[in-house]
Amino acid sequence: MSRPAGRKARRLTRWWRRRSLRTRLTVIAATAIAVSVFVAFQVASELLDWELRDTAENQLRADSRILATNAQRAGLAQVQLPPYPGSGRLVRVILPDGSTRTPAGQPALPPVSEHAGRVAQGASADLMESNDSEEGYLIYTLRAGDGAVQVAQVADDSPINQFGFGMLLIGLFCVVGGALVGRTVARTGLAPIDRLTAAAVRVAHTRDLDADIPDEGGGEIRRLIQSINDMLAALRDSRRAQQLLAEDAAHELKTPLTSLRLNVELLIRLDRRGTLDSALPAESRTRLLTDLGAQVAELSTLVAELTDLARGDVSDENTELLDLADVVAAAATRARSRTPDIEVALDVTSVWVSGRPAALQRAVLNLIDNAGKWSPADQPVQVRLRAEDASVVLEVDDAGPGIDAADVPRVFDRFYRADSARALPGSGLGLSIVQRVVDAHGGRATVARSARGGALLRFDLPAAVPPAPPARLTGGEDTAAC
Fold this sequence. Notes:
Layout: H1 3-18, H2 21-74, E1 90-94, E2 100-101, H3 114-120, E3 126-130, E4 137-144, E5 147-154, H4 158-189, H5 191-206, H6 220-273, H7 276-279, H8 282-310, E6 320-323, H9 324-338, E7 344-348, E8 352-355, H10 357-374, E9 381-388, E10 391-397, H11 430-440, E11 444-449, E12 455-462, H12 475-481
Parallel strand pairs: 7-9
Antiparallel strand pairs: 1-2, 1-5, 3-4, 4-5, 6-8, 9-10, 10-12, 11-12
Helix pairs in contact: 2-4, 6-8, 9-10, 10-11
């Protein structure tokens, strides 16, 4: 394909894609009808032409046999040829010497063809031929006596032309009617799409996600409407979750920010008066600075947990096959470094899961941190990891006061803190993050009372098949390698 032709095809494609669906359906319907009418016209014309030609040939054969019979009785030279009536068939007698006889007043026929001459000479019995002259004769030659007789008829295309003109009118009517019908069908069929589009535009402009689109139509339209309604429901849930997160975050940030602001304003006021050293003894100043550091750390932890929670399941970390025992050991090491006073007792076995190592380590670390807040100084936080049927089970328990039965259903809720935990540091987001990570890995998090009287936090994850150990080289292979 040449470049101009290729550009023209691309322009035509772009033009077609810019047309509305109604226009496309209308054009397709009109084109389909036009093609159908054209094909029907071609087939009907061929059949009509064949039928008319067959009738004309049969009539010529019948007339030739009658003339040949008369010529054999009276002789070719004496057979009577009635004067030409002015219309109808044309006749001619071919004598043995090649000369011809025709009725008086008859229009001249084309010269005798070579093939017709051979029929007169006895080379064949008959011949049907079409003359390509301007008149367009259909001539039948039949052997008679020592010569031949010919009967001819002017080829009349008027029936075909009249038929073609009629088919053209019918075709135009059908194309126009098809376009109108296609337009109507397109308008009727796309009416639900129009209403769906209007509803979607209204939702986009008003931001009203509570307005479900009415379920109408059937088949694909109904499935499309149901899919959009499901999407709106998911958006409503997401918006409510965002609003709840924003409200809870604002509430939780308010207290540490207020305390931090008051302490900082106190320091600034005393510093401006020049009475910082006299108004705040060294011991009070140290305590105030310690409080400021703790408040900043609390804010940093809260912001980090909010960021992690707001990200949901979106993570750049890839899922990989890992030994959960390594993840638990790393989390315990981090917990000891963050809180040197905490004692963590590990009882883990090698178990494999498919997951994101950083997210799982964060979940285990949150469980250990939570247990460390409650466990007495002389009682370690016990962490147990084992395989159980087709699952991997992690348990973290402490020897603290345990969780009240009324608080159990809300332990994993965001920002929820039991009354007994109000005086302890924390945001109430740690266990919520654990719940999210475990859910994202297809597991389940639960809480119960431990045998030591404290809280027993547990999660189950689907176990994975451990990787095959590397194949060991045989003695012969070792020798060969050396």
